Amino acid sequence: MEVIVTPTPETAASAAAQAVLAGLPAGKPPVLGLATGSSPLGLYAELAAAAAAGRVDFSAAKGFALDEYVGLPAGHPQSYRQVLIHEVCDVIGLPLTGLNVPDGTGATDAALEAGAAAYDAAIREAGGVDVQILGIGANGHVGFNEPGSSLSSRTRVKRLAAGTRRDNARFFADDADVPTHCITQGLGTVLDARRLVLIATGSAKAAAIAAAVEGPLSASCPGSILQWHSDAVVVVDETAAARLSNREYYDDAARGLALTP
């Protein structure tokens, strides 16, 4: 795992974007795993700047969302499909035809589970995710894999933790409007991506980052799965890094492979 600590949220966004770009394949359209939330917004702006400068082309790319709410009607402004249209497709130039989001509109448990299985199959048919962009919740959740999620789980229906619903209530007119369930990529699905890039900023994420990076590999902190991946990059600002114990080493390692003290 590579841990990069930068001074500000803006420099974290730039460093995370560089980590994404470095993981994209040459000679074929990329397949991105897409996270929502405030943490990756600056990263997406940096990718847009790279596209405008001709450093990358997302016009034939595919994107796979980490998750979607269950029960929101098609076109609901807080559905993650709509959020990703505005925050990713309209920003980096990812075509709408390339955007894939789990189907949370099924009327029965069986329909929702079938849609979840089909989503994993669609990722495989696309050749797998080249770079999965991640955020992390204050309780360590990745996607909507709440603490206690199986480390080998696949895309499935999950109930949202009460704390996650409280965190997301600001996006809805009333607390009662926040969905109680979601469909989320499983931790095993996330681990299938060839590169993971997690970005986190702010003091509210410091405990989760410390647990994910330096704590035990545990379902109690779903973000700790990054320790199990062969190519994971964690980018944080100073405040999100505040509880890291091995900071000196991370800073040394960030200097690269030059054979100097």
TrEMBL record:
GO terms for cellular component: cytoplasm. InterPro entries: Glc/Gal-6P_isomerase, Glucosamine6P_isomerase, Glucosamine6P_isomerase_CS, NagB/RpiA_transferase-like. One of its GO terms (biological process) is N-acetylneuraminate catabolic process. The keyword Magnesium does not apply. Gene3D superfamilies: 3.40.50.1360. PROSITE patterns: GLC_GALNAC_ISOMERASE. GO terms for molecular function: glucosamine-6-phosphate deaminase activity; identical protein binding. Pfam families: Glucosamine_iso (PF01182). Residues 13-229 form the Glucosamine/galactosamine-6-phosphate isomerase domain. The keyword Acetylation does not apply. Keywords: Carbohydrate metabolism, Hydrolase. This is Glucosamine-6-phosphate deaminase. The lineage of its organism: Bacteria, Bacillati, Actinomycetota, Actinomycetes, Micrococcales.
